[in-house]
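Supplementary Note 3. Input sequence used for the single-chain structure prediction.
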Amino acid sequence: MNKAVFLDRDGVINEVLTKRVKFVNKPDQMYLLEGVGEGIKMLNDANFLVFVVTNQGGVGLGYMKEEMLKRVHEKMKKDINEYGGKIDDIIYCPHKPHAGCACRKPEPEMLHTLANKHQVSLKESYMIGDRDVDIMAGKQAGAKTILIGDEEGLADKHFPSLYEAAEWIIAH
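The predicted structure, written as discrete structure tokens, is reproduced below.
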């Protein structure tokens, strides 16, 4: 079985709600947070599969089409590749918030889908997010959880950045 790190996208990998960008609806609005490329490369080098698990309600709300979302994700992968890092797979929920679907975090379906597809042991894996819905999805899936931000909340651990979380994961 493989081990993996499941990453939320907005607020963990890229800027959101900053002076430079409010939401990421086009590729030119994708700005990696500091240390993300290096942190993902460290996880790759430590034999973790790295996945992106993201709610993208903007699709369901009509702010962007799925084709544009794919272009945003291609830009994100290209930017991470420039640091030698690699995203192994991406899954997203395109539904509106409160649509009642089974895939939107805090439901664990997206994590289960990727775990089954890539033969991942969830108990040896991590879910990293910046909101409680990410942590709840990770816990429901049986993964260890890390919150990026100041407050611990429901998470097992918390760190100010993905880079510092990656350092801790590799050391433990």
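Residues 25 and 64 are 6 Å apart (CA to CA). The chain is about 35% helix and 15% strand.
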